Amino acid sequence: MHSMFNNGMTAGPVECLGHTFRNDDARREHFLKLLAEKLKDPEFRNQEGFPQGADEAILAMSDPPYYTACPNPWLRDFIACYGKPYDPCESYSREPLAIDVSVGKTDQLYKAHGYHTKVPHLAIVPSILHYTEPGDIVLDGFAGSGMTGVAAQWCGSAPAVYRHGLEMEWKTQGKPAPKWGARRVILNDLSPAATFIAANYNLPFDVDAFAKAGKQLLKDIEDEIGWMYETSHTDGKTKGKIRYTVWSEVLACASCAGEVVFTTAALDEKTHRVRDVLTCPHCGAQAKKEQMDLQFESFLDPATTQMEKRPKRVPVLIWYQVGKTAYSKKPDRDDIERVAKIALLPLPTEVPTDRLPDCQMTRVGRMKTTNSLAVHYMFLPRAAQAMGLLWRKATIHPDESIRSMLLFMVEQAIWGMSTLARYTPTHFSQVNQYLSGVFYVSSQHAECSPWYILDGKLSRLSKAFRKFNAARIAISNTGTAARLSLAEASIDYIFTDPPFGENIYYADLNLLVESWHRVKSDPIAEAIVDRVRLKGVSEYQDLMHDCFREYYRVLKPGRWMTVVFSNSRAAVWNAIQVGLQQAGFVVAEVSALNKVQGSFQQVMSTTAVKQDLVISVYKPNGGLEQRLSQRGASTESAWDFVETHLRQLPVTKHRDGELEQVVERDPRRVYDRMVAWFVRHDYPVPLSSDEFLTGLQQRDFPERDGMIFLPSQVGEYDKKRAQVEHSPQMELFVSDERSAIDWLADFLKKRPSTYQEVHPEFITQLGAGWRKHEEKPELTALLEDNFLRYQGTGPVPTQISNYLSKNFHDCRGLDKEDSHLIAKAKERWYVPDPNKAADLEQRREKSLLKEFETYRNHTGRRLREFRLEVLRAGFKAAWSQKDLQTIIKVAGKIPEVALQEDEKLLLWYDQALTLTEAGG
Ligand SMILES: C[S@@+](CC[C@H](N)C(=O)[O-])C[C@H]1O[C@@H](n2cnc3c(N)ncnc32)[C@H](O)[C@@H]1O
Prior knowledge:
Elements: E1 14-16, E2 19-21, H1 24-39, H2 42-45, E3 52-53, H3 55-61, H4 75-82, H5 121-131, E4 137-140, H6 147-157, H7 160-172, E5 184-189, H8 192-202, H9 207-225, E6 230-232, E7 239-252, E8 259-261, H10 262-266, E9 277-279, E10 286-288, E11 293-294, E12 296-301, E13 306-311, E14 313-322, E15 325-329, H11 333-343, H12 360-363, H13 381-395, H14 400-410, H15 414-417, E16 444-448, H16 450-466, E17 474-478, E18 491-496, H17 506-517, E19 519-520, H18 537-554, E20 555-566, H19 570-583, E21 586-592, H20 600-604, E22 612-618, H21 622-631, H22 635-648, E23 653-655, E24 658-660, H23 667-680, H24 689-698, E25 703-704, E26 707-708, H25 711-722, H26 737-750, H27 755-765, H28 779-786, E27 788-789, H29 798-807, H30 819-825, E28 829-830, H31 834-856, H32 868-880, H33 884-891, H34 896-900, H35 903-917
Parallel strand pairs: 4-5, 4-18, 5-17, 18-20
Antiparallel strand pairs: 1-2, 3-19, 6-7, 7-8, 7-11, 7-14, 7-16, 9-10, 12-13, 14-15, 20-22, 21-22, 23-24, 25-26, 27-28
The chain binds S-adenosylmethionine.
S-adenosylmethionine binds at residues 115, 117-119, 141-142, 144-145, 147, 188-191, 194, 480-482, 497-499, 506, 525-527, 547.
């Protein structure tokens, strides 16, 4: 398959950033020299997010200008050379697109290099095709292993069968055919370990030469250290090749102080399970593992030349092969002597001896109790010899791109050869059986041989990359997404998968690999919740806000960003939402893809389960911003926002042949987005919610099935609606007063009911998902404040008469003033029409503000229970009076978590804080 870009793998002249070089080596040499000079500049090195590492180490990892293991000085040149300047007259229009991030998890290329929380490239491809054209520039600032780059390249190199499949799929969805062709891409990550993976995924190399070099490397180390992994077969003559050795920790019996080998005492050979209670082989006493002390032995730490302690571990089982057949045995005297001999060898210089910092990952997972203080403590002597040799052999390969790929392969053995590799007898393979996302040192360790881990890896890598021919169209940068040296309005689309609060400590975890490269992440700039580094949710929100602001700056107006997000905590979700809106983005769609796990509303609630969300946001086009700055916060600018926003929203959404509610078209949601827009521009909100509701009527924004449209959109909706049987259903999950009102509105719309009828149904909604500090409302008050009751005078309201005549035989076709109908309709609650609703809203707002006064005047301890609706109304009113102190003062009276868990309160509060801190 031909790509539109030359991948530079042929000998001879190459083009790079507008220059032509004799060959690719000359290109590399030229830019390495420039990078070496740049690294001497203290200002360059002082940048926020700059990784920790010596010049030589950074240069050794880098392949400039395509990849630098530090901030990349050529990002601007890349854009200047290959990008298109922003043109306000260019017509560009897209609807938001939700993708399924679980697609492609079994793909070989996806699995070619592991990384925490990878998003498969095949999940990203449709998104890039949808939002961009060939040659456009895509950015991912939290790129991790660079799957966005692979996806951008895949758009140009996808095989015919893939193209055909996607074209058919889009055709059935009524979408125009995708425009195939690679897109250029900028990949950034704070972690050098991540960008090294990303760069190697995205740069071309000679796969055959790599496969050959990989084989040779594995053979060379076999020639040198094969003897370390030999063992005698049961016939006493044949030599077996060890696949892995199981090491067990040794404990001391609490009764007799005799040594208890954990695996021998705990492992049930039949079930392969570990017993809870261990029996001492010396005195027969029984105890749990936790009741016994771990035994330590002394050793001379070559890094400090001090005597140190490490857990006493003994080999208990060897799995080996003779030919292709696998056998197991208990270690014999020769085996023990062999490991003792290896332990006397000097530590290879390649093995890092860095002390591990005090961080969350070294505080958990038995890292402290096993005294795992430094990187070299995490490798048993034989594994240290093997890993050191693998690294040495890879780094001395003369060809730069092959050398890089050899390291790409070899570094994948680091976790699997360290003491993090657990022995899991219930699994057939012991390769990479470490716990992911944490450092955890198990009591039983499977010390694997390099060939056991890498033989298969090498052939899988060669196979995967043979099918994927990277071009030189990606550029990788190592630094913080908060400071990208890119020009304003230069990017056509952003796809990004940021850290999700406290899920994964990337910088801590990547230390293990980065210490081998001798270049490490700057943890200060890391956008996560990190207990040890004192980053709470609000610090996380600030860090994310900085990154989103940078995204906003570099994205072209009118263009889109897709944020993939996975977390169950409402506070973290709100931090993301507020960060996005404060940066200036407008949220157009939030999709929860995995329906099995819970509905969208559940995701937003505090008790939610973990969910993958896809958030589609756009940077409003220049016109809207300009008009706002000319007009200021006027009614007209509010309606201008509403119109522009509705234009960006999808008209319909389908799932399994049914129409789905477009949540963002809900008038309340549109109102919230409008409010956020003005708040973020430091303007008062020009419309109250009742003015908004009446305005919708007067200004001809047609409503269908609880959603609002532009007149130009409604025809399309009606057409699609006529093709399906059911109207789209709103998903409602009651967690606070607001959602309780929404639930009631939905219920009463379908079924105008008396208090007695609605009460039992309502009660079932106020379950476990109710927010902790939110006062539970009385049904009567909710009904009175938000709905109308037919009291039996005058004609029966249409909503009730329609319902009765449809559902009761005896009411069919009766006149609205018929006494039977009136009797049946009496005392039923129903949803007011928009004019009436605006009146009610006004009345309700008044009473909310009255109650807010009592909050404001509350003295003494913090408010433990309150109404979020009161706080929201109060904050909004204070904002419009520029009374920022009230917002800050009242916010101080409620628990921090309640603030963080409410997107609207958080928005006002944060903006108030920012302005007061700035002296505004
Ligand atoms: C969820 S992961 C991305 C994984 C990626 N989607 C993949 O497929 O490999 C988030 C990444 O953000 C990075 N990160 C954390 N803080 C950052 C910052 N301030 N700037 C840039 N990257 C950051 C982490 O190092 C991590 O690699």
